[in-house]
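Journal club side-thread
Mid-discussion, someone asked how the predicted structure for our own chain would compare to the paper's figures. Pasting it here so we can look after the session.
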Amino acid sequence: MSDPILFETDDDVALVTLNRPERLNALNYALIDRLMAVLDAVETDTTLRAVIVTGAGDRAFSAGADIHEFASTIRHGRDGAIRDFVRRGQAMTARLEAFRKPVIAAVNGLAFGGGCEITEAVHLAVASERAQFAKPEINLGMPPTFGGTQRLPRLAGRKRALEMLLTGDPYSAAHALEIGLVNKVVPHDALLPAARELAARIVRHSPLAAGAVITAVTRGLNMGIAEGLQVESEQFAALAPSHDLGEGLDAWIARRPPSYAGR
C-alpha cells in the first residue's frame, strides 16, 4: 500500500500531500494517524517554519471522511464510533488549528466534509479556481463531526454557515473567498506557487513571533476580550527574553535585515 501522506521539504517549508487520489483523498483512519505523526515530526524540526497541505491528483483536496470505513465502525455501536471516528477527526482539526507553525491549505479540488473542515481549521488557505466546497454530512443523516458546526459559523457567520450545513449544497471557490473560508483564489496551475509565495512572506519573520500570533488568535477567538488580551500579554511575556525580539529591535534600529534564530 502507498503512503497515505506524502511529505517533502523545500528549504524551510514542508509540503504535506493527502495521498489517496483513487478515493478522492478520503480521510480514513490510517491517513489521519499518519498526518498526525507527520505534524509531530514537523513540529520538532527547527529547520521547518511553515506547512502547506494539499491533495494528490487534480480532482480533490479531500472528499471527506472515508464513508465505507465509518459505516463499518458505526455498525459496531455508538461508543466505538465516537472514539474511533469523531475523536480522531476532532483531534486532527484541533491539532492543525493550534499548530505553532503556520499551516496553509492549497485546495486543489473537492473539499467536502472533512476536507472542508481541514480548510476551516488551518490558518490560511489558497484555492484553485476549480475547487469546490460542501458540507454534505446532512445527506447522510448526521451533522459534521470534525469541527464543522463550530468553525464554519465563526468564519462565515451563523446564517451563511447554517445554509451550507442544512442544505449540503456545494459552493464555488469564489463563494469560499467571499465568506472568508479561503484567502485567495488562483488559476489551477498557479496553486502551489501561490501557496509557496504566501509561505515565503511569512517565514521571513521570526518563527517565535509567528507561533505567538497563532496561539493568541486561536485561543482568543473562544474567549471574551479581557481574557483574550491576557493571552496576548502572556504570549508577549514569553517572547520578551528571546533572541528574536532583541534581534528584531536591533535590526530595525540599525536599518538592516534581521537574522532570526527561532529560539
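Post-session note: The chain has a mean pLDDT of 95.
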